[in-house]
Amino acid sequence: MSPERMATNPALPKNGVVFLMYHELEIPGRPLCQTEAGYSRYVVQEANFRSQVKWLQEAGWRSLSVSEALASEQPNGSKSNAVAVTFDDGCESDLLSAAPILSGAGYHATFYVTVGYLGRRGYLTPPQLRELGALGFEIGCHSMTHVYLTDLDERGLQREIREAKAELEEILGKPVKHFSCPGGRCDARVIQVARSAGYNSVANSRVHENRPATDNFDLGRVAILRETELPAFQGICRGDSLWKIRVGDSLRGAAKQLLGNSLYDRGRAFLLR
Ligand SMILES: [Zn+2]
């Protein structure tokens, strides 16, 4: 992307802010939205999420929504002890579990919602989504149907990015400014459609801190997984263990490129059986 098209973030600290990426939380006794192994890898147990928030709080970290992370002015230009907290997909556990735990700590977050999932079993209903917004949490868009955007033609991109935004705004009665890509799949066409649809940012799942020079349409995020233990979580928040995750991701990225999305997913499902 050419430098003049970039929207950068002078408010971010030089050493960057890590954007955490969560999905469904597992509440004891409550069935998950989906059951395959590839899915539950991304499901964090509620007790672990609670421990992570407790550690952040005790260690004096702040938790920001995407808008706050990109816009807020910080004393001394320093935001080094802040993370941005994001959730993808719009599972009901956003409201039942994540929201009360975050609110209890006075923490903010952004919930990216798959519009076509609203009202399905295990996902938020439109009234629950409004309730989540009314609690002060930011709502972003995570596409209409959760397809890989890089596989779509122009018509498909418009539906998944622009029409999903309009539908979400209709439900919420206010503007939706931030978009996150299903499966982290993003390219220049996705960014162009998101930009022209009026979003202020696009988040993917590339593992990097977001710094003053980071483009708002290339926001990296780090997935917190079921297996992520507290010391690893602390390393992620501090940014000092991201290189290890990047090594693993670049190997997986090479496999995806070699095999294509659908073959890669079938291979992954096979290996995780
Ligand atoms: Zn997703």
Helices and strands in order, then pairings?
Blueprint: E1 18-22, E2 25-26, H1 37-40, E3 44-45, H2 46-58, E4 62-64, H3 66-71, E5 82-87, H4 93-104, E6 110-113, H5 126-134, E7 138-141, H6 154-172, E8 178-180, H7 188-197, E9 201-203, E10 222-223, H8 230-238, H9 242-259, H10 261-272
Parallel strand pairs: 1-5, 1-10, 2-3, 4-5, 5-6, 6-7, 8-9
Helix pairs in contact: 2-4, 6-7, 9-10
The structure holds zinc ion.
Task: Give an overview of the whole structure.
This protein is of the alpha/beta class. It contains ten helices and ten strands. The strands form three sheets. Strands 1, 4, 5, 6, 7 and 10 form a six-stranded parallel sheet that branches. It has a two-stranded parallel ribbon with strand order 2-3. Strands 8-9 form a two-stranded parallel ribbon. Helix 1 links the parallel strand 2 and strand 3. Helix 2 packs parallel to helix 4 and helix 6 packs parallel to helix 7. The longest helix is centred in the middle third of the chain and has 19 residues. It is globular and about 50 Å long. About 3% of the residues have low confidence. The site of zinc ion has 5 residues, from loops.
Number of helices: 10
Q: What's the overall average pLDDT, rounded?
A: 90
Could you spell the SSE succession in H and E letters?
Answer: EEHEHEHEHEHEHEHEEHHH
Rg calc: 18 Å
DSSP strand count: 10
**Oligomer state of the chains in this structure:** single chain
**Which range best describes the helical content: under 10%, 10-25%, 25-40%, 40-55%, 55-70% or over 70%?**
40-55%
